[in-house]
Input
Amino acid sequence: MSSPDLTQRHQKLAQVMKKQGLDALALNPGPSLPYLTGLHFHMSERPVVVFFSIDQAPIIVLPGLEALKVQDLPYQIQAFPYDENPANWVKAFQDAIQAGGFEKSRIGVEPRALRVLELNFLEEAAPQAQFISGEAAVAELRMRKDADEVAAMRKAAEIAQAALQAALPKIKPGVTERQIATELIMQLLRHGSQSRIPFSPIVSGGPNSANPHASPTDRKLAPGDLLVIDWGANVKGYFSDITRTFAIGEVDPELKHIAEIVRKANAAGHSCVEPGIPAGQVDDAARTVINEAGYGEYFTHRTGHGLGLEGHEEPYIRSDNQMHLEVGMSFTIEPGIYLPGRGGVRIEDDVVVTRNGIESLTDLPRELILLEA
Ligand code: CO
Ligand code: CO
Output
Protein backbone atom coordinates (compact mmCIF):
# COMPACT_ATOMS: atom_id res chain seq x y z
CA MET A 1 0.00 0.00 0.00
CA SER A 2 1.54 3.29 -1.08
CA SER A 3 1.19 6.35 1.11
CA PRO A 4 -1.81 8.52 0.24
CA ASP A 5 -1.38 11.75 -1.72
CA LEU A 6 -2.09 14.18 1.10
CA THR A 7 -1.71 17.29 -1.04
CA GLN A 8 -4.45 15.94 -3.27
CA ARG A 9 -6.66 15.40 -0.22
CA HIS A 10 -5.99 18.99 0.89
CA GLN A 11 -7.02 20.30 -2.53
CA LYS A 12 -10.20 18.24 -2.50
CA LEU A 13 -10.97 19.43 1.02
CA ALA A 14 -10.55 23.05 -0.07
CA GLN A 15 -13.08 22.53 -2.87
CA VAL A 16 -15.57 20.94 -0.51
CA MET A 17 -15.10 23.68 2.12
CA LYS A 18 -15.73 26.33 -0.51
CA LYS A 19 -18.92 24.59 -1.58
CA GLN A 20 -20.12 24.24 2.00
CA GLY A 21 -19.28 27.79 3.04
CA LEU A 22 -16.52 26.95 5.51
CA ASP A 23 -13.50 29.27 5.85
CA ALA A 24 -11.50 26.82 7.90
CA LEU A 25 -11.63 23.35 9.39
CA ALA A 26 -10.11 22.74 12.84
CA LEU A 27 -9.33 19.09 13.54
CA ASN A 28 -8.13 17.55 16.78
CA PRO A 29 -6.84 13.96 17.16
CA GLY A 30 -9.38 11.48 15.80
CA PRO A 31 -9.66 9.43 12.61
CA SER A 32 -9.79 12.44 10.26
CA LEU A 33 -6.52 13.97 11.47
CA PRO A 34 -4.21 11.16 10.25
CA TYR A 35 -6.35 10.88 7.10
CA LEU A 36 -5.55 14.48 6.18
CA THR A 37 -2.11 14.94 7.72
CA GLY A 38 -0.47 11.51 8.04
CA LEU A 39 0.20 12.54 11.65
CA HIS A 40 -0.66 10.49 14.74
CA PHE A 41 -1.30 12.17 18.09
CA HIS A 42 -2.84 10.85 21.27
CA MET A 43 -5.83 12.64 22.65
CA SER A 44 -4.33 13.94 25.90
CA GLU A 45 -4.46 16.90 28.26
CA ARG A 46 -2.21 18.77 25.80
CA PRO A 47 -4.40 20.04 22.94
CA VAL A 48 -3.43 19.48 19.30
CA VAL A 49 -5.37 21.29 16.58
CA VAL A 50 -4.71 21.46 12.83
CA PHE A 51 -6.38 24.24 10.82
CA PHE A 52 -7.12 23.73 7.14
CA SER A 53 -8.24 26.60 4.97
CA ILE A 54 -9.09 27.17 1.35
CA ASP A 55 -5.99 28.91 0.08
CA GLN A 56 -3.10 28.42 2.49
CA ALA A 57 -0.97 25.64 3.95
CA PRO A 58 -2.28 23.85 7.06
CA ILE A 59 -1.48 25.37 10.46
CA ILE A 60 -0.88 23.28 13.57
CA VAL A 61 -0.89 24.07 17.30
CA LEU A 62 0.94 21.34 19.21
CA PRO A 63 3.11 20.62 22.24
CA GLY A 64 6.73 21.63 21.66
CA LEU A 65 7.86 18.18 22.71
CA GLU A 66 6.09 16.77 19.64
CA ALA A 67 7.26 19.45 17.20
CA LEU A 68 9.68 17.04 15.49
CA LYS A 69 6.65 15.21 14.06
CA VAL A 70 5.89 18.09 11.70
CA GLN A 71 9.39 18.44 10.27
CA ASP A 72 10.01 16.95 6.83
CA LEU A 73 6.37 16.38 5.95
CA PRO A 74 5.57 15.91 2.24
CA TYR A 75 3.54 19.16 2.36
CA GLN A 76 3.95 22.60 3.91
CA ILE A 77 2.67 23.23 7.40
CA GLN A 78 3.00 26.20 9.72
CA ALA A 79 3.60 25.11 13.32
CA PHE A 80 2.81 26.92 16.58
CA PRO A 81 4.39 24.82 19.33
CA TYR A 82 3.76 25.60 22.99
CA ASP A 83 5.78 24.82 26.11
CA GLU A 84 4.84 22.86 29.24
CA ASN A 85 3.19 25.80 31.01
CA PRO A 86 -0.58 25.72 30.31
CA ALA A 87 -0.75 29.48 30.91
CA ASN A 88 1.07 29.94 27.58
CA TRP A 89 -1.10 27.67 25.48
CA VAL A 90 -3.79 30.15 24.54
CA LYS A 91 -1.04 32.36 23.04
CA ALA A 92 -0.15 29.56 20.59
CA PHE A 93 -3.81 29.36 19.56
CA GLN A 94 -4.00 33.16 19.18
CA ASP A 95 -0.87 33.17 16.99
CA ALA A 96 -2.31 30.38 14.82
CA ILE A 97 -5.66 32.15 14.43
CA GLN A 98 -3.87 35.35 13.48
CA ALA A 99 -1.57 33.60 10.99
CA GLY A 100 -4.57 32.06 9.29
CA GLY A 101 -6.70 35.20 9.47
CA PHE A 102 -9.44 33.17 11.15
CA GLU A 103 -10.55 35.85 13.65
CA LYS A 104 -14.05 36.11 12.17
CA SER A 105 -14.17 32.87 10.21
CA ARG A 106 -16.75 30.14 9.96
CA ILE A 107 -14.68 27.27 11.32
CA GLY A 108 -15.81 23.68 10.95
CA VAL A 109 -15.05 21.24 13.77
CA GLU A 110 -15.88 17.56 14.32
CA PRO A 111 -18.69 17.36 16.88
CA ARG A 112 -17.86 13.74 17.75
CA ALA A 113 -14.13 14.42 18.23
CA LEU A 114 -13.71 17.97 19.56
CA ARG A 115 -13.64 18.32 23.33
CA VAL A 116 -14.51 21.28 25.51
CA LEU A 117 -10.73 21.44 26.14
CA GLU A 118 -9.95 22.42 22.53
CA LEU A 119 -13.15 24.43 22.08
CA ASN A 120 -12.28 26.66 25.04
CA PHE A 121 -8.86 27.49 23.56
CA LEU A 122 -10.38 28.11 20.13
CA GLU A 123 -13.11 30.38 21.48
CA GLU A 124 -10.68 32.28 23.65
CA ALA A 125 -8.32 32.81 20.71
CA ALA A 126 -11.08 33.72 18.25
CA PRO A 127 -14.07 35.08 20.19
CA GLN A 128 -15.70 36.41 17.01
CA ALA A 129 -15.32 33.22 14.98
CA GLN A 130 -18.20 30.80 14.52
CA PHE A 131 -17.61 27.14 15.32
CA ILE A 132 -19.96 24.85 13.42
CA SER A 133 -20.10 21.21 12.40
CA GLY A 134 -17.60 20.36 9.68
CA GLU A 135 -18.65 16.72 9.69
CA ALA A 136 -20.22 16.86 6.23
CA ALA A 137 -17.04 18.28 4.68
CA VAL A 138 -14.89 15.53 6.14
CA ALA A 139 -17.45 12.88 5.17
CA GLU A 140 -17.43 14.12 1.55
CA LEU A 141 -13.80 13.01 1.35
CA ARG A 142 -13.70 10.02 3.62
CA MET A 143 -16.75 8.18 2.34
CA ARG A 144 -15.25 7.65 -1.12
CA LYS A 145 -12.49 5.11 -0.60
CA ASP A 146 -9.59 4.85 -3.01
CA ALA A 147 -8.04 1.53 -4.07
CA ASP A 148 -5.52 1.48 -1.20
CA GLU A 149 -8.22 2.16 1.37
CA VAL A 150 -10.39 -0.61 -0.06
CA ALA A 151 -7.35 -2.94 0.02
CA ALA A 152 -6.90 -2.23 3.74
CA MET A 153 -10.59 -2.89 4.37
CA ARG A 154 -10.43 -6.12 2.36
CA LYS A 155 -7.51 -7.24 4.51
CA ALA A 156 -9.38 -6.25 7.70
CA ALA A 157 -12.29 -8.47 6.58
CA GLU A 158 -9.95 -11.37 5.76
CA ILE A 159 -8.26 -11.17 9.15
CA ALA A 160 -11.58 -11.05 11.00
CA GLN A 161 -12.93 -14.04 9.11
CA ALA A 162 -9.76 -16.09 9.69
CA ALA A 163 -9.82 -15.16 13.38
CA LEU A 164 -13.38 -16.40 13.75
CA GLN A 165 -12.56 -19.67 12.04
CA ALA A 166 -9.62 -20.16 14.40
CA ALA A 167 -11.88 -19.49 17.40
CA LEU A 168 -14.68 -21.86 16.28
CA PRO A 169 -13.33 -25.04 17.96
CA LYS A 170 -13.67 -23.28 21.35
CA ILE A 171 -17.35 -22.47 20.82
CA LYS A 172 -19.45 -25.19 22.48
CA PRO A 173 -21.96 -25.71 25.28
CA GLY A 174 -20.62 -24.78 28.72
CA VAL A 175 -18.35 -22.01 27.44
CA THR A 176 -19.31 -18.47 28.45
CA GLU A 177 -19.89 -15.50 26.14
CA ARG A 178 -16.97 -13.74 27.79
CA GLN A 179 -14.62 -16.66 27.17
CA ILE A 180 -15.60 -16.72 23.49
CA ALA A 181 -15.06 -12.97 23.19
CA THR A 182 -11.62 -13.30 24.80
CA GLU A 183 -10.62 -16.10 22.44
CA LEU A 184 -11.84 -14.10 19.45
CA ILE A 185 -9.86 -11.00 20.48
CA MET A 186 -6.70 -13.11 20.84
CA GLN A 187 -7.26 -14.61 17.41
CA LEU A 188 -7.86 -11.18 15.87
CA LEU A 189 -4.49 -10.01 17.21
CA ARG A 190 -2.74 -13.26 16.22
CA HIS A 191 -4.07 -12.96 12.68
CA GLY A 192 -2.70 -9.46 12.29
CA SER A 193 -5.31 -6.96 13.42
CA GLN A 194 -3.87 -3.78 14.87
CA SER A 195 -4.23 -3.84 18.64
CA ARG A 196 -6.88 -1.12 18.57
CA ILE A 197 -9.70 -3.42 17.43
CA PRO A 198 -12.75 -1.54 16.10
CA PHE A 199 -15.01 -2.48 19.04
CA SER A 200 -15.12 -5.25 21.62
CA PRO A 201 -16.86 -8.21 20.02
CA ILE A 202 -20.53 -8.86 20.72
CA VAL A 203 -21.01 -12.49 21.73
CA SER A 204 -24.58 -13.15 22.80
CA GLY A 205 -26.19 -16.56 23.30
CA GLY A 206 -29.74 -17.77 23.85
CA PRO A 207 -32.13 -15.01 25.00
CA ASN A 208 -29.21 -12.52 25.10
CA SER A 209 -28.98 -12.72 21.31
CA ALA A 210 -32.31 -10.87 21.12
CA ASN A 211 -30.44 -7.72 22.24
CA PRO A 212 -28.67 -6.30 19.17
CA HIS A 213 -25.99 -4.51 21.22
CA ALA A 214 -25.45 -6.98 24.05
CA SER A 215 -22.17 -7.10 25.97
CA PRO A 216 -20.68 -10.55 26.62
CA THR A 217 -21.76 -12.05 29.96
CA ASP A 218 -20.84 -15.10 32.03
CA ARG A 219 -23.84 -16.99 30.65
CA LYS A 220 -22.82 -20.44 29.41
CA LEU A 221 -23.81 -21.59 25.95
CA ALA A 222 -26.44 -24.31 26.00
CA PRO A 223 -27.92 -26.67 23.38
CA GLY A 224 -30.78 -25.01 21.52
CA ASP A 225 -29.21 -21.52 21.72
CA LEU A 226 -28.83 -19.10 18.92
CA LEU A 227 -25.45 -17.37 19.15
CA VAL A 228 -24.77 -13.97 17.57
CA ILE A 229 -21.16 -12.90 17.12
CA ASP A 230 -20.36 -9.40 15.84
CA TRP A 231 -16.66 -8.59 15.51
CA GLY A 232 -14.07 -6.82 13.38
CA ALA A 233 -10.38 -6.20 12.73
CA ASN A 234 -8.29 -3.08 12.11
CA VAL A 235 -5.77 -2.79 9.29
CA LYS A 236 -3.94 0.55 9.00
CA GLY A 237 -6.81 2.23 10.80
CA TYR A 238 -9.49 0.72 8.51
CA PHE A 239 -12.14 -1.47 10.10
CA SER A 240 -14.16 -4.55 9.32
CA ASP A 241 -17.46 -5.22 11.09
CA ILE A 242 -19.03 -8.64 10.57
CA THR A 243 -21.87 -10.58 12.18
CA ARG A 244 -22.78 -14.23 11.86
CA THR A 245 -25.35 -16.29 13.72
CA PHE A 246 -24.83 -19.84 14.94
CA ALA A 247 -27.09 -22.61 16.20
CA ILE A 248 -25.87 -24.70 19.10
CA GLY A 249 -27.28 -28.05 18.09
CA GLU A 250 -30.94 -28.30 17.20
CA VAL A 251 -32.87 -25.03 17.68
CA ASP A 252 -36.56 -24.16 17.70
CA PRO A 253 -38.04 -24.25 14.15
CA GLU A 254 -39.14 -20.61 14.34
CA LEU A 255 -35.58 -19.52 15.14
CA LYS A 256 -34.39 -21.47 12.10
CA HIS A 257 -37.12 -19.79 10.09
CA ILE A 258 -36.10 -16.24 11.08
CA ALA A 259 -32.48 -17.08 10.24
CA GLU A 260 -33.57 -17.92 6.71
CA ILE A 261 -35.58 -14.69 6.41
CA VAL A 262 -32.61 -12.62 7.57
CA ARG A 263 -30.37 -14.40 5.08
CA LYS A 264 -32.81 -13.47 2.30
CA ALA A 265 -33.03 -9.88 3.54
CA ASN A 266 -29.22 -9.65 3.53
CA ALA A 267 -29.16 -11.04 -0.03
CA ALA A 268 -31.82 -8.53 -1.15
CA GLY A 269 -29.68 -5.72 0.27
CA HIS A 270 -26.65 -6.95 -1.66
CA SER A 271 -28.42 -7.42 -4.96
CA CYS A 272 -29.92 -3.92 -5.15
CA VAL A 273 -26.60 -2.06 -4.75
CA GLU A 274 -25.26 -0.16 -7.74
CA PRO A 275 -23.87 3.32 -8.25
CA GLY A 276 -26.55 6.00 -8.36
CA ILE A 277 -29.23 4.49 -6.15
CA PRO A 278 -30.16 6.27 -2.91
CA ALA A 279 -28.64 4.68 0.22
CA GLY A 280 -32.18 4.35 1.58
CA GLN A 281 -33.04 1.90 -1.16
CA VAL A 282 -30.71 -0.72 0.37
CA ASP A 283 -32.60 -0.41 3.63
CA ASP A 284 -35.92 -0.71 1.82
CA ALA A 285 -34.79 -3.83 -0.07
CA ALA A 286 -33.74 -5.68 3.08
CA ARG A 287 -36.62 -4.42 5.19
CA THR A 288 -39.26 -5.43 2.64
CA VAL A 289 -38.21 -9.08 2.89
CA ILE A 290 -38.57 -9.02 6.67
CA ASN A 291 -41.84 -7.05 6.59
CA GLU A 292 -43.39 -9.41 4.06
CA ALA A 293 -42.44 -12.40 6.21
CA GLY A 294 -44.37 -10.78 9.08
CA TYR A 295 -41.39 -9.92 11.32
CA GLY A 296 -41.08 -6.19 10.56
CA GLU A 297 -41.61 -5.11 14.16
CA TYR A 298 -38.67 -7.28 15.25
CA PHE A 299 -36.18 -5.61 12.90
CA THR A 300 -35.45 -2.71 15.21
CA HIS A 301 -32.48 -0.94 13.61
CA ARG A 302 -31.35 0.53 10.30
CA THR A 303 -29.89 -1.89 7.75
CA GLY A 304 -26.32 -0.61 7.95
CA HIS A 305 -23.79 2.16 8.27
CA GLY A 306 -20.74 3.43 6.43
CA LEU A 307 -17.48 1.82 7.42
CA GLY A 308 -13.85 2.89 7.12
CA LEU A 309 -11.65 4.73 9.60
CA GLU A 310 -14.62 4.63 11.96
CA GLY A 311 -17.06 1.86 12.81
CA HIS A 312 -19.98 4.12 12.01
CA GLU A 313 -19.73 6.86 9.38
CA GLU A 314 -21.46 8.05 6.22
CA PRO A 315 -23.30 6.71 4.28
CA TYR A 316 -25.88 5.53 6.80
CA ILE A 317 -28.18 2.87 5.35
CA ARG A 318 -31.50 4.21 6.60
CA SER A 319 -34.74 4.39 4.68
CA ASP A 320 -34.79 8.22 4.67
CA ASN A 321 -31.21 8.66 3.41
CA GLN A 322 -31.44 10.09 -0.11
CA MET A 323 -27.66 10.27 -0.57
CA HIS A 324 -26.73 8.59 -3.84
CA LEU A 325 -24.29 5.72 -3.65
CA GLU A 326 -21.06 6.21 -5.55
CA VAL A 327 -18.13 4.02 -6.50
CA GLY A 328 -15.83 3.60 -3.50
CA MET A 329 -18.47 4.04 -0.82
CA SER A 330 -18.27 1.26 1.76
CA PHE A 331 -20.88 0.23 4.26
CA THR A 332 -22.42 -2.69 6.11
CA ILE A 333 -25.55 -4.62 5.24
CA GLU A 334 -26.81 -6.08 8.51
CA PRO A 335 -30.49 -6.90 8.77
CA GLY A 336 -31.67 -8.73 11.89
CA ILE A 337 -34.72 -10.17 13.61
CA TYR A 338 -34.82 -10.20 17.41
CA LEU A 339 -37.50 -12.17 19.29
CA PRO A 340 -37.49 -10.94 22.91
CA GLY A 341 -36.75 -13.65 25.44
CA ARG A 342 -36.02 -16.23 22.76
CA GLY A 343 -33.20 -15.21 20.47
CA GLY A 344 -32.02 -13.08 17.61
CA VAL A 345 -30.36 -13.37 14.22
CA ARG A 346 -28.19 -10.81 12.43
CA ILE A 347 -26.10 -11.27 9.31
CA GLU A 348 -23.68 -8.43 8.63
CA ASP A 349 -21.46 -8.02 5.59
CA ASP A 350 -19.05 -5.27 4.56
CA VAL A 351 -19.46 -4.09 0.98
CA VAL A 352 -17.98 -1.55 -1.42
CA VAL A 353 -19.81 0.05 -4.33
CA THR A 354 -18.04 -0.71 -7.60
CA ARG A 355 -18.59 0.39 -11.19
CA ASN A 356 -20.47 -2.84 -11.86
CA GLY A 357 -22.43 -2.87 -8.62
CA ILE A 358 -20.97 -4.30 -5.46
CA GLU A 359 -18.00 -6.11 -3.97
CA SER A 360 -18.62 -7.98 -0.73
CA LEU A 361 -15.48 -7.90 1.39
CA THR A 362 -16.92 -10.64 3.59
CA ASP A 363 -17.85 -14.10 2.38
CA LEU A 364 -18.32 -16.42 5.36
CA PRO A 365 -21.44 -18.59 4.94
CA ARG A 366 -24.59 -16.58 5.66
CA GLU A 367 -26.83 -19.49 6.57
CA LEU A 368 -27.38 -20.32 10.23
CA ILE A 369 -24.07 -22.03 11.07
CA LEU A 370 -24.66 -25.27 12.92
CA LEU A 371 -22.25 -26.04 15.78
CA GLU A 372 -22.32 -29.36 17.62
CA ALA A 373 -24.12 -29.35 20.94
CO1 CO B 1 -21.34 -5.15 13.65
CO1 CO C 1 -22.23 -2.76 12.03
